[in-house]
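Exam prep: given the inputs below (a chain plus NAP), describe the expected output before reading on.
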Amino acid sequence: MKSLYGVIGSPIAHSMSPLIHNDAFLQNGMDAHYHAFHVEPDQLETAVAGMRALGINGFNVTIPHKEAIIPLLDSVDDAALQIGAVNTVVNRDGELIGYNTDGRGFVEALKEVVKLKDKHVLIIGAGGAARAILFTLALEKGVQIDICNRTVSKAEDLIREFSLERITRSITVDQAAREIQRYDVVVQTTSVGMYPKINDIPLPLKSIKQHAVFTDIIYNPIETKLLQEAKAIGAITQNGIHMFAYQAALAFEIWTGKFPDTVRMKKLVEEHLGGKTC
Ligand code: NAP
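Solution:
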């Protein structure tokens, strides 16, 4: 019998997850199908009951359900519980188990371009994605992390909640802009610069540290204004397609035990978005 997978969210029509997961099933010779389901918040509980009743093998969870789904599951992996968000659910013999592959997906992608040990990292933003990224990055040996966010108190709350005071501090966006040459790695996690406001930039850039890596988790546009400017003054850059592919690949691995071809996944997303990866 065909295995069934999917993603629930709202909005969901433009999700690229069906594209890459259905291709990965084909590539791995699996008789499976992945479908995008539009689910409004007031239908989440019913939708999860439906997944359970129909025996759906696994599904992704996206905005706005990543937090709200937690109490509806039978168990949740420790990291996802601490992050407070689930983006992947697997159905193991009728038990729905939640995971978070966003943080690990981000870090695995970043490791393709930089060794993180002892690096000084700036995270711009303190929203949902930054939460998963901070939690996971902080597990890397020797990293020092500064976070700047428009709403400073949100970054302070995050650091306190994760008890990361020893290796992390909250700074203002102005301070981050002034001291940008200090950072080996700059991680952009806000929605600033996302389509349609593609000329927005979260902070002004003058000079940067030599060999600095700039990564932006936005993938529409493929290359944000921040990445364009950073690249123009010598940074190594990585766009949001990489994190997107890795979080999907890790979800696929949880469901099937197989790790798919992330290069192929990235290429499919790139082609779909009609541009080139940086
Ligand atoms: P979120 O929880 O709503 O957080 C939004 C963040 O952006 C907050 O830090 C917020 O600051 C900041 N922000 C929003 N508008 C701003 C503005 N005008 N000026 C300055 N800061 C602003 O969103 P999220 O779920 O973290 O997602 C953030 C971005 O990441 C989105 O573009 C999303 O598409 C992308 N994303 C990509 C992936 C991937 O796989 N590549 C995965 C997840 C998310 P305040 O706290 O001050 O409001």
